[in-house]
Write a structure and sequence with these properties.
The protein is mainly α. The chain contains 26 helices and seven strands. Helix 2 runs antiparallel to helix 14, helix 3 packs antiparallel against helix 13 and helix 6 runs antiparallel to helix 7. It is globular, with a radius of gyration of 24 Å.
């Protein structure tokens, strides 16, 4: 290892928070979605097999990629090497639950298996799918470099940019606009810290402060007992206590016998090859694109070694009980831009392992609202998209743009599919009136409409704020944020009225700051939902953008404070410059 390349640097904390939150999201998805396969949140299959198995694969991969970064730093005598990000593969997670484990569980139930036996069968089919993906990834490691050399960089990076726009940036942007009083200040801190590259006062990491202030805001707003429609779901000390009581030590257990039992019955899993093989190939190409992205950012890693360990870690996941492949993550240029090196990868592996083995995933989720940290991951998506244009030859920019379309179409198809599944004969008005946090395949329905209303103004305003932050013209950026405040308050942006499936603008001074029925829509009783609480068919439901107006105002204040700080300390810059 290079003497000039330390185990940890301060900016590793920022990288850690972003990567940890991304991985935590995947763990929460596992906990929530495995119920579709009969594996409940308190099931031994989840607590003693799936989560510990995931911990094994995540720890192995993160430690290897951290070591790999140290080797590269020593070989090239550099101190700015950033490790490849790594974690649970989101597309595989969703596809294996919906198209392998859930159908396997349904088939087992139809065959008359008991509930526990049906859940175990679904788990075993998931293990086979995970093993298959790992084997494909491992074999693909030996041919991937040849594919990479024969593929234009624009073709590799444009796909990542499309995924970043639709499935990373959009997902987390909707969460920010869904709960602005918690998420707007963290977003302002992240954009200021990483676009303007101005150091946070006292040298504190911007990512850490964003998460801390977002968490504090969520708890303070709960104590103030403001309407749930304005602040989002309240934080609960009781829920933390319940989650803490459910903790316990869950060490990894060898699941090889259960895996062999399932693999030796090809008639049970052969039908799933139409899912397993394409997903395995998808993972190989995705990892290959991420390695190309890292090289475009200045860190050239061995394609074969990186992909081989990627595959071996996924195989280890299956052998120790996890149904979900792990992969090299999208976002290396983002982590590098944060100033993260190798320590963020090591920290992520250790932290994820600790919470998986102690059953404390739910505890963290109850303490730290997701919206407090999503701005970091949003920034990663922005940087990935920018890199696709910046790192490709200038004349290939149209090719990058063309490559965005299929991924954006995939995002749209996901939303449309989710909308039909969620609707079940109901109108959008009924869905939102029952629960403002309704999502369609993970994308927030209310957030989608809020982002769409007045999008021409929103696009222009957000672009202007970003440009002025890059130029360090903080007071100009704050002025544009104040314009956004006025637009939201008067309904030019974000506010809407919905009747049935038709939604319209809600322009003018808000007569009801929170919207009729909005409080009930977010209350626990309404989520459980009585049909009697729905508005009459002839009445529209309104959603003023008061929360976003306040969020933009806070946004402006934070930017102006940084402008004042920069005027007093004009030489302050982040280490990521």
């Amino acid at each position: 290892m290079s003497a000039g390349y330390p185990l940890f640097v301060k900016r590793d904390l920022d990288g850690f928070f972003g990567l940890f939150i991304d991985n935590l999201v995947q763990l929460l998805l596992i906990v929530n979605l495995c119920g579709l396969a009969g594996i409940g949140a308190d099931s031994p299959l989840l607590l003693d097999a799936i989560l510990p198995g995931a911990a094994v694969s995540i720890l192995l991969g993160n430690l290897f990629y951290a070591w790999q970064a140290h080797r590269l730093a020593a070989r090239e005598n550099r101190s700015d090497v950033t490790a490849l990000p790594y974690g649970i593969n989101t597309p595989s997670l969703l596809v294996y639950i919906f198209f392998v484990m859930q159908p396997a569980h349904q088939q087992a139930v139809q065959e008359g298996m008991a509930a526990d036996a049906a859940a175990r069968h679904a788990w075993q089919m998931g293990l086979v799918a995970c093993l298959g993906s790992g084997l494909i990834e491992f074999v693909g490691a030996f041919v991937a470099e040849a594919v990479r050399k024969r593929t234009p960089r624009a073709a590799l990076l444009s796909t990542l940019a499309g995924i970043a726009i639709g499935f990373i940036s959009m997902t987390f942007t909707l969460q920010i606009f869904q709960r602005p009083l918690v998420a707007m200040v963290p977003l302002a801190l992240i954009l200021i810290t990483y676009f303007s590259r101005i150091g946070f006062p006292l040298g504190l990491p911007g990512g850490l402060m964003a998460v801390a202030l977002g968490t504090a805001a969520a708890w303070i707003l709960t104590l103030l007992k403001l309407p749930p429609s304005l602040v989002g779901p309240p934080m609960s000390v009781d829920e933390i206590g319940n989650a803490w009581a459910a903790r316990g030590l869950h060490l990894p257990q060898f699941a090889g016998m259960a895996l062999w039992e399932a693999a030796s019955q090809p008639a049970r899993w052969a039908g799933f090859l139409s899912v397993i093989v394409p997903m395995g190939l998808f993972n190989v190409i995705g990892s290959l694109q991420n390695i190309e992205s890292a090289e475009a950012g200045g860190d050239r890693y061995s394609t074969m070694a990186s992909l081989a360990v990627n595959g071996l870690s996924t195989i280890a996941a299956a052998v120790f009980g996890s149904c979900f492949p792990t992969t090299i993550y999208i976002g290396h240029p983002g982590w590098k831009g944060l100033g993260a090196r190798a320590g963020y990868s090591t920290l992520n592996g250790l932290a994820i392992t600790a919470i998986c083995l102690t059953g404390t995933v739910s505890v963290i989720h109850r303490i730290v609202p997701m919206e407090a940290g999503v701005a970091i991951v949003l920034w990663i998506g922005i940087v990935i998209t920018a890199q696709a244009f910046q790192a490709s030859p200038k004349e290939h920019a149209p090719a990058v743009a063309v490559g965005l379309f299929p991924a954006i179409a995939a995002w749209g198809a996901t939303v449309v599919q989710g909308a039909f599944i969620s609707a079940q004969g109901k109108t959008m008005q009924e869905l939102l009136s029952r629960n403002i946090a309704t999502d369609v395949n993970g994308f927030l329905l209310h957030g989608l409409i809020v982002m769409e209303r007045g999008y021409i103004f929103t696009c222009m305003i957000l672009a202007a704020v970003t440009a002025f932050l890059i130029e360090r013209k903080f007071f100009a950026a704050a002025a544009w944020s104040l314009i956004a405040t006025g637009c939201a308050f008067f309904g030019l942006t974000h506010a809407y009225s919905i009747q049935g499936n038709n939604f319209d603008f809600l322009i003018g001074l808000p007569t009801d700051l929170f919207g009729p029925g909005a409080d009930a829509a977010s209350a626990p009783e309404a989520v459980a939902g009585a049909a009697a609480s729905l508005p009459a068919a002839s009445a529209a439901t309104t959603y003023p953008a008061t929360g976003l107006a306040i969020g933009y105002l806070a946004f402006a204040v934070v930017i102006a404070l940084f402008g004042w700080h920069h005027r007093r300390n004009p030489s302050a810059e982040t280490a990521a410059h």
